[in-house]
Amino acid sequence: MTDRIAEPWGARTPYAAGQRWPDRVDTELSDGLGADEVDWTQSAAVLHSNGDGIDIAAHDGRIVGVRGRSVDRVNHGRVDPKDLFGWQANNSPDRLTVPLVRDRGRLVESDWDTAMNRIVSTTQALLRDIGPSAIGFYTSGQLLLEEYYTLAVIAHAGLGTNHIDGNTRLCTATAEWALKETFGCDGQPGSYTDVDHADVIALYGHNVAETQTVLWSRMLDRLAGADPPQLICVDPRETAVAKAATVHLAPVPGTNLALMNGLLHEVIANDWVDHDYVAAHTVGYDELAGCVAPYPPERVARICDVPAGQLRRAAEILGHAQRLLSTVLQGFYQSHQATAAAVQVNNLNLIRGMLGRPGAGILQMNGQPTAQNTRECGANGDLPAFRNWQNDEHVAELARLWNVDPAKIPHYSEHTHAMQMLRFAEQGSLRMLWVSATNPAVSLPELRRIRQILGQSRLFLVVQDIFRTETAELADVVLPAAAWGEKTGTFTNADRTVHLSDKAVDPPGQARPDLDIFCDYAQRMDFCDRDGAPLISWKDPESAFAAWQRCSAGRPCDYTGLSYEKLRGGSGIQWPCDAEHPDGTERLYADGAFFSKPDYCESYGKDLVTGAAIGPTEYRAANTDGKAVLRAAGYTPPHELPGAGELWLTTGRTVYQFHTRTKTGRAPQLNDAAPQVWVELSAADAQRCGIGDGDMAEIRSARGSVYARARVGGIRDGVAFLPFHYGYWDAADGAGHHRAANELTITDWDPVSKQPLFKTSVARIRKRAATDPSGW
Ligand SMILES: Nc1nc2c(c(=O)[nH]1)N[C@H]1C(S)=C(S)[C@@H](COP(=O)(O)OP(=O)(O)OC[C@H]3O[C@@H](n4cnc5c(=O)[nH]c(N)nc54)[C@H](O)[C@@H]3O)O[C@H]1N2
Ligand SMILES: Nc1nc2c(c(=O)[nH]1)N[C@H]1C(S)=C(S)[C@@H](COP(=O)(O)OP(=O)(O)OC[C@H]3O[C@@H](n4cnc5c(=O)[nH]c(N)nc54)[C@H](O)[C@@H]3O)O[C@H]1N2
Ligand SMILES: [Mo]
Q: Domain 4Fe-4S Mo/W bis-MGD-type, which positions (predicted)?
């Protein structure tokens, strides 16, 4: 048996281009139990966006292990190390089991009636005194489709507030916007099977080796087989992806757009362009060519601090690819000019005609397991099923579906994004915030400010979680939720594969599924349609799914051809899945037809530099026939730049931990593999700061300070890297240290997607004496 902590990707099963990826079934069972001594329940992975099909093992009413599903198209049986061990968190003795309410300053144990009545009476008082804009919802990329849709209907049509968003704002808002800008609509064009066919795979700010280990295993198996693909990696760190790459470009943070414009410049200057594809399927080519003309390799090399020869080499590989698969993630999305840079990846594939056939694809990746559902259900503030808030007919469709007055559904402006909701709470116009399945007191930028905002007494904070998190500590009401494995529902991964996750065990104590909690709130609030019938007419997962199917009918994310029955037993299925595509759809845009027709599209797009919304008239004039839009933008430097003695600070992930560690921190194997925060520095920077490998360092920015042990090497000069997983830490002697990366990060966001810039801030670093007796 492979030690999957030491070898996160497990054993190789090589295969050649065009072959089927071999199966390899990974299993983890505790207590020496045999596979036939436990009950197996079908599910999928929830500690990343890959959507690996897994079965949950249960014994005596507890989860005792997991096993990969070989029939699943996504993983062919493989399981990520976090999923192999992370389920132990479900059984943790410190799960939330009863509602808590704040009494004379302290959180005390309570009951569901008391907790829900406080929420309902606060809602009613705010509606009476201020109106729906006093109330906001901040949800997740980790709930289930049925839960998001219910919450979205409550917000959009029950309360009529425009303040609803998910932590997907921090995660994949840029994926969504890069797709809207180019294709007029969200939805990944590509498929994971493109890995089986590609001759070039380009990974932009995507450390797939640590963040989607099963997808990386697929790439490693291609690299180990005949006709391996060439890899391009764009990352300032020497990740495992960078080490395996044919060309590794390590740009200075905040310069991705300049780098992309440089690559496009070379492809165009050398005429590696598929002019037939461009003419038939795109608009905007001349503007793009004009915009990238001032980005020859020498100039880009200076901006990005990357050798010009390496840029040329990368462009040549991209320019000669026959089957180019491009993936993009947080190195682009959480950076300066995020959407503008991510859109250039779409442009590169489009001008090379690399879309909609095996191996030629784009994956504007998701991060969280259910982020796609947050977006498609409208729990990120958009109108459900990729409807366009600027299109009155789309609003009218929803009003008919929900049987409400169209005026009830806010569509006077774009919805309020999460960072703006926090601002409204800071200023005092937002007075109730309901947080579900996210831990903003660790995951939002500039934590000192976030603690002040969430801790105000004038803000009524509801936190719905499975653990008593840093955020729960600030709440007025804490609602205990059922976790994955304790409830039933569906979710959709980054390549549009829909999985069903069935309930394997009961939730602990009085914890309830998030769907039940939202339905209970709707009932207590008496949300009704025009005829006085309940607005939320469903009560269980399957009827919620049916309601969503009706909402999705005829839209790009059409679920009408799916059912719980169809999702049981075999593999997950990719949407759209309808009467015309009963087995789902492997690749979008295979026929060169897009969702971007003016009457059908989800969005008319925004100006890439300013974020100003494009209006229907302008869009219709530019893209009457619904082609893909090539949008261009010039590079501008970030507004916070390192001065003398300062470094770029970038943040991200390690393979063993998930986010704020509420789950992986409670799984011994994972916790022990990465128990404490560290900071990565180049050898030259370490020497300049007088810091040796293993020394304690203090990292300080204009926002705060953090202590971490130094790891020297593996990163380019001028940049320091901190993993963001670790919240406030109390030493054995009671001496607290800040160690959360977000003590340091800046309150700033991309103008188009509104995604915060976790990858580009500025910090100083110096050596500190280690004082902690536990030896941290
Ligand atoms: N183990 C693990 N896996 C996870 C998660 C987890 O917490 N732990 N979380 C899941 C979620 S929600 C997400 S969103 C994904 C995120 O998955 P990734 O985006 O792959 O992970 P990150 O570590 O955030 O960032 C990726 C890389 O961006 C690089 N980078 C930093 N600054 C820049 C820059 O300016 N330009 C470029 N080109 N690159 C830069 C970093 O060095 C880093 O290696 O992972 C998912 N999978
Ligand atoms: N500096 C820095 N900051 C970052 C990032 C970065 O790269 N750098 N990445 C950003 C990204 S991409 C992301 S996705 C965010 C993640 O940030 P968060 O969303 O804050 O991270 P999690 O720890 O996953 O929080 C999820 C919460 O939901 C709870 N939970 C789990 N399952 C359930 C459930 O079924 N029901 C309920 N009600 N609760 C549940 C968990 O216990 C946990 O408290 O962080 C962002 N912040
Ligand atoms: Mo994420």
A: 38-94
Give me the domains of the chain, ranges plus CATH numbers: 27-91 (3.30.200.210), 100-170+370-574 (3.40.50.740), 172-365+595-629 (3.40.228.10), 646-767 (2.40.40.20)
Ligand 2 pocket test: pick from 145, 439, 515 the residue with the most ligand atoms within 8 Å of its Cβ: 439
* Residues above pLDDT 70, as percent of the chain: 98
Q: Is 239 in the pocket of ligand 1 (CB under 6 A)?
A: yes
Ligand 2 pocket: which residues have CB below 6 Å?
A: 140-143, 167, 170-171, 330, 334, 367-368, 436-440, 442-443, 464-467, 469, 481, 483-484, 514, 651-652, 659-660, 662, 724, 741-742, 745, 758
In eight-state DSSP terms, residue 89 is G
Atom number of ligand 2 nearest to Cα 487: 35
Rounded CA separation 232/241 (Å): 9
Per-residue pLDDT tens over the stretch 120-174: 999 999 999 999 999 999 999 999 999 999 999 999 999 999 999 999 999 999 9
Helices assigned H by DSSP within 296-384: 297-304, 308-320, 330-333, 338-351, 371-377
CA atoms within 13 A on the CB side of 718: 14
What CA–CA distance (Å, rounded) separates 519 from 484?
A: 18
pLDDT at 773 over 80: no
Taking CB atoms within 8 Å and a gap of at least 24, the contacts of 453-459 are 453/422, 453/425, 453/426, 454/425, 456/425, 458/428, 458/431, 459/425, 459/430, 459/431, 459/432, 459/433
C-alpha dihedral (481, 484, 487, 493), degrees to nearest 10 = 120
**Is the model's pLDDT at 501 over the cut of 60?**
yes
Question: Which residue out of 92, 142, 146 has the highest number of ligand 2 atoms within 8 Å of its CB and is therefore the one to mutate?
Answer: 142
Residue 149 contacts residue 544 (beta carbons within 8 Å): yes
Quote the radius of gyration of the chain (alpha carbons, Å).
25
- Evaluate the omega torsion of the peptide bond into residue 228 and state whether it is cis, within 30 degrees of 0: no
